[in-house]
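Researcher: Here's a chain I'd like modeled. Treat it as a single chain, no partners, no ligands.
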Amino acid sequence: MSRNRVYYTLLIIIVAGISALSGAVAGGIAVYSFLSSNSPQPIISAPPTLPPDQKSIPVSNIGIENSITESVNRIGPAVVTVVSVVPGQRGFFGRAPDQTVTGSGVVISNDGYIITNNHVVEDAKAVSIILADGTTSAVQIIGTDIFSDLAVLLADDNLTAIAPLGNSDTLKPGETVIAIGSPLGDFVNTVTVGVVSALGRSLDTGYGYYMENLIQTDAAINQGNSGGPLVNVAGEVVGINTLVVRGSGYGNTIAEGLGFAIPANTAQAVAEQIISNGYVARPYLGIRWQAITPRLAATYNLPVEWGIFVSEVIAGGPADLGGVLYGDIITKIGEIPLDEDSSYVNALFTHSPGVSITLQVIRGNQEIDIQVLLGETNTG
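Model: Modeled as a single isolated chain. C-alpha coordinates:
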Protein backbone atom coordinates (compact mmCIF):
# COMPACT_ATOMS: atom_id res chain seq x y z
CA MET A 1 0.00 0.00 0.00
CA SER A 2 1.35 3.42 -0.98
CA ARG A 3 2.14 6.09 1.57
CA ASN A 4 -0.57 8.41 0.21
CA ARG A 5 -3.23 5.76 0.51
CA VAL A 6 -2.32 5.06 4.12
CA TYR A 7 -2.44 8.81 4.83
CA TYR A 8 -5.95 9.22 3.36
CA THR A 9 -7.25 6.16 5.21
CA LEU A 10 -6.06 7.54 8.56
CA LEU A 11 -7.54 10.94 7.77
CA ILE A 12 -10.99 9.42 7.05
CA ILE A 13 -10.90 7.43 10.33
CA ILE A 14 -9.95 10.55 12.33
CA VAL A 15 -12.70 12.68 10.71
CA ALA A 16 -15.32 9.96 11.28
CA GLY A 17 -14.37 9.62 14.96
CA ILE A 18 -14.50 13.36 15.54
CA SER A 19 -17.94 13.53 13.87
CA ALA A 20 -19.31 10.67 15.98
CA LEU A 21 -17.99 12.22 19.16
CA SER A 22 -19.46 15.63 18.33
CA GLY A 23 -22.85 14.10 17.56
CA ALA A 24 -22.90 12.22 20.82
CA VAL A 25 -22.06 15.33 22.80
CA ALA A 26 -24.66 17.40 20.96
CA GLY A 27 -27.31 14.73 21.43
CA GLY A 28 -26.57 14.45 25.12
CA ILE A 29 -26.83 18.20 25.56
CA ALA A 30 -30.14 18.25 23.67
CA VAL A 31 -31.59 15.43 25.75
CA TYR A 32 -30.43 17.07 28.98
CA SER A 33 -31.96 20.39 27.94
CA PHE A 34 -35.26 18.75 27.01
CA LEU A 35 -35.54 16.84 30.27
CA SER A 36 -34.60 19.88 32.33
CA SER A 37 -37.14 22.11 30.62
CA ASN A 38 -39.98 19.55 30.86
CA SER A 39 -39.47 18.18 34.36
CA PRO A 40 -42.44 18.95 36.69
CA GLN A 41 -41.90 21.90 39.02
CA PRO A 42 -43.34 21.87 42.52
CA ILE A 43 -46.28 24.30 42.96
CA ILE A 44 -45.54 24.92 46.62
CA SER A 45 -42.07 24.16 47.81
CA ALA A 46 -43.11 23.85 51.46
CA PRO A 47 -46.37 23.99 53.41
CA PRO A 48 -47.26 27.46 54.70
CA THR A 49 -46.57 28.06 58.34
CA LEU A 50 -49.11 29.62 60.71
CA PRO A 51 -48.16 32.31 63.21
CA PRO A 52 -47.15 30.83 66.59
CA ASP A 53 -50.38 32.09 68.23
CA GLN A 54 -52.70 30.75 65.54
CA LYS A 55 -53.95 27.17 65.54
CA SER A 56 -55.62 25.38 62.66
CA ILE A 57 -59.26 24.31 63.02
CA PRO A 58 -59.65 20.56 62.53
CA VAL A 59 -62.67 19.68 60.37
CA SER A 60 -64.21 16.23 60.26
CA ASN A 61 -67.38 15.81 58.23
CA ILE A 62 -67.55 12.21 59.32
CA GLY A 63 -67.49 13.28 62.97
CA ILE A 64 -70.29 15.82 62.46
CA GLU A 65 -72.43 13.33 60.54
CA ASN A 66 -71.97 10.73 63.27
CA SER A 67 -72.94 13.27 65.94
CA ILE A 68 -76.09 14.22 64.01
CA THR A 69 -77.05 10.58 63.57
CA GLU A 70 -76.46 9.83 67.25
CA SER A 71 -78.48 12.88 68.32
CA VAL A 72 -81.41 11.88 66.10
CA ASN A 73 -81.30 8.33 67.45
CA ARG A 74 -81.37 9.70 71.00
CA ILE A 75 -84.10 12.32 70.62
CA GLY A 76 -86.19 10.90 67.76
CA PRO A 77 -88.10 8.31 69.83
CA ALA A 78 -89.22 11.08 72.23
CA VAL A 79 -90.73 13.22 69.45
CA VAL A 80 -94.49 12.90 68.97
CA THR A 81 -97.10 14.13 66.51
CA VAL A 82 -99.81 16.15 68.27
CA VAL A 83 -103.33 15.89 66.84
CA SER A 84 -105.90 18.44 68.04
CA VAL A 85 -109.61 18.48 67.26
CA VAL A 86 -110.91 22.06 67.15
CA PRO A 87 -114.69 22.68 67.18
CA GLY A 88 -116.08 24.16 63.99
CA GLN A 89 -117.18 27.79 64.11
CA ARG A 90 -120.86 28.70 63.97
CA GLY A 91 -121.76 30.66 60.85
CA PHE A 92 -124.81 31.85 58.92
CA PHE A 93 -125.46 28.32 57.65
CA GLY A 94 -124.89 26.65 61.01
CA ARG A 95 -121.82 25.17 62.68
CA ALA A 96 -118.94 24.15 60.44
CA PRO A 97 -117.43 20.66 60.84
CA ASP A 98 -114.72 20.13 63.44
CA GLN A 99 -111.19 20.71 62.22
CA THR A 100 -108.06 18.67 62.84
CA VAL A 101 -104.85 20.55 63.57
CA THR A 102 -101.49 18.78 63.72
CA GLY A 103 -98.19 19.76 65.21
CA SER A 104 -95.27 18.20 67.03
CA GLY A 105 -94.16 17.77 70.63
CA VAL A 106 -91.39 16.26 72.71
CA VAL A 107 -91.55 14.13 75.87
CA ILE A 108 -89.55 15.75 78.69
CA SER A 109 -90.13 13.55 81.75
CA ASN A 110 -90.72 10.01 82.91
CA ASP A 111 -94.16 11.09 84.11
CA GLY A 112 -95.27 11.55 80.51
CA TYR A 113 -95.20 15.35 80.29
CA ILE A 114 -94.91 16.71 76.77
CA ILE A 115 -94.00 20.22 75.60
CA THR A 116 -95.63 21.63 72.48
CA ASN A 117 -96.81 25.01 71.20
CA ASN A 118 -99.88 26.76 72.55
CA HIS A 119 -101.14 27.41 69.01
CA VAL A 120 -101.10 23.65 68.29
CA VAL A 121 -103.66 22.89 71.02
CA GLU A 122 -105.42 26.26 71.39
CA ASP A 123 -109.23 25.88 71.63
CA ALA A 124 -108.94 22.10 71.14
CA LYS A 125 -111.72 19.95 72.58
CA ALA A 126 -109.65 16.76 72.28
CA VAL A 127 -105.94 16.07 71.86
CA SER A 128 -104.04 12.89 71.10
CA ILE A 129 -100.47 12.01 70.15
CA ILE A 130 -98.88 9.62 67.70
CA LEU A 131 -95.62 8.16 68.97
CA ALA A 132 -92.55 7.59 66.84
CA ASP A 133 -93.45 3.88 66.54
CA GLY A 134 -96.90 4.75 65.19
CA THR A 135 -98.96 3.99 68.30
CA THR A 136 -101.57 6.49 69.47
CA SER A 137 -102.21 7.78 72.98
CA ALA A 138 -104.73 10.20 74.43
CA VAL A 139 -103.38 13.22 76.31
CA GLN A 140 -104.77 15.98 78.50
CA ILE A 141 -103.79 19.63 78.40
CA ILE A 142 -102.20 20.56 81.73
CA GLY A 143 -101.82 24.24 80.89
CA THR A 144 -100.88 26.75 78.23
CA ASP A 145 -99.16 30.12 77.97
CA ILE A 146 -100.13 32.27 75.02
CA PHE A 147 -97.31 34.77 75.52
CA SER A 148 -94.52 32.20 75.19
CA ASP A 149 -96.59 30.02 72.82
CA LEU A 150 -96.00 26.97 74.98
CA ALA A 151 -98.25 24.24 76.32
CA VAL A 152 -97.75 21.16 78.48
CA LEU A 153 -99.59 17.90 77.84
CA LEU A 154 -99.76 14.71 79.92
CA ALA A 155 -100.04 11.33 78.24
CA ASP A 156 -102.47 8.73 79.54
CA ASP A 157 -100.00 5.91 78.76
CA ASN A 158 -96.48 5.39 80.07
CA LEU A 159 -93.85 6.85 77.76
CA THR A 160 -90.36 5.42 77.95
CA ALA A 161 -88.45 7.68 75.55
CA ILE A 162 -87.37 10.96 77.18
CA ALA A 163 -85.54 13.91 75.61
CA PRO A 164 -83.10 15.78 77.86
CA LEU A 165 -83.26 19.59 77.89
CA GLY A 166 -79.97 21.38 77.29
CA ASN A 167 -78.74 24.83 78.29
CA SER A 168 -79.81 27.18 75.50
CA ASP A 169 -77.72 30.01 77.00
CA THR A 170 -74.57 28.32 75.68
CA LEU A 171 -75.70 28.36 72.04
CA LYS A 172 -73.57 30.27 69.54
CA PRO A 173 -74.30 31.49 66.00
CA GLY A 174 -73.02 28.97 63.46
CA GLU A 175 -73.58 25.98 65.74
CA THR A 176 -75.11 22.93 64.05
CA VAL A 177 -78.70 22.21 65.09
CA ILE A 178 -81.31 19.63 64.09
CA ALA A 179 -85.07 20.11 63.81
CA ILE A 180 -87.26 17.03 64.30
CA GLY A 181 -91.02 17.01 63.77
CA SER A 182 -93.97 16.07 61.60
CA PRO A 183 -94.31 18.61 58.78
CA LEU A 184 -97.83 18.69 57.31
CA GLY A 185 -98.77 16.08 59.91
CA ASP A 186 -97.92 13.19 57.58
CA PHE A 187 -94.13 13.03 57.44
CA VAL A 188 -93.53 11.79 60.97
CA ASN A 189 -90.13 12.40 62.58
CA THR A 190 -88.70 14.32 59.65
CA VAL A 191 -85.12 15.46 60.31
CA THR A 192 -83.67 18.70 58.94
CA VAL A 193 -80.25 20.12 59.69
CA GLY A 194 -78.99 23.69 59.78
CA VAL A 195 -77.20 26.15 62.00
CA VAL A 196 -78.05 28.72 64.64
CA SER A 197 -78.43 31.79 62.42
CA ALA A 198 -78.80 34.28 65.28
CA LEU A 199 -79.83 34.59 68.91
CA GLY A 200 -82.06 36.99 70.83
CA ARG A 201 -84.49 37.67 67.99
CA SER A 202 -87.84 39.42 68.64
CA LEU A 203 -90.95 39.07 66.47
CA ASP A 204 -94.17 41.08 66.59
CA THR A 205 -97.12 38.75 67.14
CA GLY A 206 -99.63 41.32 65.97
CA TYR A 207 -101.47 41.06 69.31
CA GLY A 208 -99.77 43.87 71.18
CA TYR A 209 -96.66 42.04 72.31
CA TYR A 210 -93.44 40.57 70.96
CA MET A 211 -92.11 37.06 71.26
CA GLU A 212 -88.64 37.76 72.56
CA ASN A 213 -85.24 36.07 72.83
CA LEU A 214 -85.98 33.60 70.03
CA ILE A 215 -83.42 31.35 68.35
CA GLN A 216 -83.21 31.90 64.59
CA THR A 217 -82.22 28.89 62.48
CA ASP A 218 -82.05 27.93 58.82
CA ALA A 219 -82.97 24.30 59.57
CA ALA A 220 -86.13 23.74 57.52
CA ILE A 221 -89.28 24.23 59.62
CA ASN A 222 -92.69 23.75 58.02
CA GLN A 223 -96.32 23.61 59.12
CA GLY A 224 -96.58 20.68 61.50
CA ASN A 225 -93.06 21.16 62.88
CA SER A 226 -94.48 23.55 65.50
CA GLY A 227 -93.80 22.27 69.00
CA GLY A 228 -91.05 19.89 67.93
CA PRO A 229 -87.53 20.04 69.32
CA LEU A 230 -84.49 21.89 68.04
CA VAL A 231 -81.55 19.68 69.00
CA ASN A 232 -77.79 20.19 69.28
CA VAL A 233 -75.15 17.64 68.24
CA ALA A 234 -74.79 16.56 71.87
CA GLY A 235 -78.30 15.11 71.71
CA GLU A 236 -79.98 17.78 73.85
CA VAL A 237 -83.12 19.81 73.19
CA VAL A 238 -82.03 23.46 72.99
CA GLY A 239 -85.26 24.94 71.61
CA ILE A 240 -88.92 24.35 70.79
CA ASN A 241 -89.70 25.19 67.17
CA THR A 242 -92.53 27.70 66.93
CA LEU A 243 -92.78 29.50 63.59
CA VAL A 244 -91.24 30.34 60.24
CA VAL A 245 -91.21 33.64 58.36
CA ARG A 246 -91.85 33.40 54.63
CA GLY A 247 -91.84 37.12 53.89
CA SER A 248 -95.29 38.30 54.99
CA GLY A 249 -94.96 41.78 56.41
CA TYR A 250 -91.58 42.24 54.76
CA GLY A 251 -92.77 43.53 51.37
CA ASN A 252 -93.09 41.24 48.38
CA THR A 253 -89.81 39.42 49.05
CA ILE A 254 -90.17 35.69 49.65
CA ALA A 255 -87.77 34.50 52.33
CA GLU A 256 -86.47 31.00 52.99
CA GLY A 257 -84.58 29.58 55.93
CA LEU A 258 -86.06 31.90 58.56
CA GLY A 259 -87.21 29.56 61.30
CA PHE A 260 -87.54 30.44 64.98
CA ALA A 261 -87.49 28.43 68.20
CA ILE A 262 -88.21 29.19 71.86
CA PRO A 263 -85.04 28.67 73.95
CA ALA A 264 -85.03 25.49 76.04
CA ASN A 265 -84.36 27.47 79.22
CA THR A 266 -87.53 29.48 78.66
CA ALA A 267 -89.49 26.33 77.82
CA GLN A 268 -88.27 24.61 80.97
CA ALA A 269 -89.17 27.56 83.23
CA VAL A 270 -92.66 27.84 81.71
CA ALA A 271 -93.21 24.06 81.83
CA GLU A 272 -92.23 23.89 85.50
CA GLN A 273 -94.80 26.56 86.39
CA ILE A 274 -97.51 24.86 84.36
CA ILE A 275 -96.77 21.45 85.87
CA SER A 276 -96.73 22.88 89.40
CA ASN A 277 -99.63 25.35 89.15
CA GLY A 278 -101.49 24.53 85.93
CA TYR A 279 -100.70 28.00 84.60
CA VAL A 280 -97.96 30.63 84.29
CA ALA A 281 -98.15 33.46 86.81
CA ARG A 282 -98.04 36.80 84.98
CA PRO A 283 -98.26 40.31 86.43
CA TYR A 284 -101.70 41.92 86.27
CA LEU A 285 -102.39 45.68 86.08
CA GLY A 286 -106.14 45.66 85.56
CA ILE A 287 -106.73 47.95 82.58
CA ARG A 288 -107.96 47.83 79.00
CA TRP A 289 -105.87 49.87 76.65
CA GLN A 290 -105.10 51.08 73.14
CA ALA A 291 -101.55 51.33 71.84
CA ILE A 292 -100.48 54.81 70.71
CA THR A 293 -98.35 55.20 67.59
CA PRO A 294 -97.08 58.35 65.84
CA ARG A 295 -99.87 58.04 63.25
CA LEU A 296 -102.59 57.68 65.92
CA ALA A 297 -101.05 60.53 67.94
CA ALA A 298 -101.14 62.84 64.90
CA THR A 299 -104.74 61.89 64.08
CA TYR A 300 -106.05 62.63 67.59
CA ASN A 301 -103.57 65.34 68.51
CA LEU A 302 -102.17 63.38 71.46
CA PRO A 303 -99.30 64.80 73.53
CA VAL A 304 -96.99 61.79 72.95
CA GLU A 305 -96.18 59.54 69.98
CA TRP A 306 -95.74 56.31 71.96
CA GLY A 307 -97.48 54.78 74.96
CA ILE A 308 -100.87 53.29 75.77
CA PHE A 309 -104.22 55.04 76.21
CA VAL A 310 -106.18 53.68 79.20
CA SER A 311 -109.65 52.96 77.83
CA GLU A 312 -110.97 51.23 80.97
CA VAL A 313 -109.84 50.69 84.55
CA ILE A 314 -111.04 47.41 86.08
CA ALA A 315 -112.75 48.14 89.39
CA GLY A 316 -110.78 46.87 92.37
CA GLY A 317 -107.74 46.00 90.23
CA PRO A 318 -104.16 47.13 90.88
CA ALA A 319 -104.43 50.15 88.56
CA ASP A 320 -107.70 51.24 90.18
CA LEU A 321 -106.23 50.92 93.68
CA GLY A 322 -103.13 52.82 92.60
CA GLY A 323 -105.09 55.76 91.19
CA VAL A 324 -104.92 55.22 87.42
CA LEU A 325 -107.86 56.90 85.62
CA TYR A 326 -109.67 56.51 82.32
CA GLY A 327 -107.95 58.66 79.69
CA ASP A 328 -104.49 58.43 81.28
CA ILE A 329 -101.61 57.77 78.89
CA ILE A 330 -98.97 55.42 80.30
CA THR A 331 -95.57 56.16 78.76
CA LYS A 332 -93.22 54.21 81.03
CA ILE A 333 -93.39 51.06 83.17
CA GLY A 334 -90.65 50.94 85.75
CA GLU A 335 -87.50 51.93 83.89
CA ILE A 336 -88.77 50.85 80.46
CA PRO A 337 -90.23 53.52 78.15
CA LEU A 338 -93.04 52.36 75.88
CA ASP A 339 -91.94 52.91 72.28
CA GLU A 340 -91.54 51.09 68.98
CA ASP A 341 -89.07 48.66 70.56
CA SER A 342 -90.85 48.02 73.88
CA SER A 343 -94.52 47.10 73.94
CA TYR A 344 -96.76 47.47 76.99
CA VAL A 345 -97.09 43.70 77.53
CA ASN A 346 -93.37 42.98 77.24
CA ALA A 347 -92.48 45.88 79.55
CA LEU A 348 -95.07 44.70 82.10
CA PHE A 349 -93.81 41.10 81.93
CA THR A 350 -90.33 42.11 83.03
CA HIS A 351 -91.87 42.38 86.53
CA SER A 352 -93.31 39.73 88.81
CA PRO A 353 -96.72 39.56 90.50
CA GLY A 354 -96.75 41.16 93.94
CA VAL A 355 -94.06 43.74 93.05
CA SER A 356 -94.62 47.48 93.40
CA ILE A 357 -93.75 49.44 90.25
CA THR A 358 -93.85 53.05 89.11
CA LEU A 359 -95.95 54.08 86.12
CA GLN A 360 -95.11 57.28 84.26
CA VAL A 361 -98.45 58.78 83.22
CA ILE A 362 -99.57 61.76 81.11
CA ARG A 363 -102.80 63.17 82.56
CA GLY A 364 -104.01 66.24 80.73
CA ASN A 365 -100.98 68.50 80.53
CA GLN A 366 -99.19 66.94 83.49
CA GLU A 367 -96.67 64.11 83.76
CA ILE A 368 -97.11 62.21 87.02
CA ASP A 369 -95.76 59.04 88.63
CA ILE A 370 -98.13 56.46 90.09
CA GLN A 371 -97.14 53.57 92.35
CA VAL A 372 -98.97 50.32 91.64
CA LEU A 373 -98.78 46.94 93.38
CA LEU A 374 -99.04 44.36 90.60
CA GLY A 375 -101.52 41.54 90.90
CA GLU A 376 -101.36 38.05 89.36
CA THR A 377 -103.22 36.66 86.40
CA ASN A 378 -103.70 33.15 85.10
CA THR A 379 -102.86 33.13 81.40
CA GLY A 380 -103.89 29.51 81.00
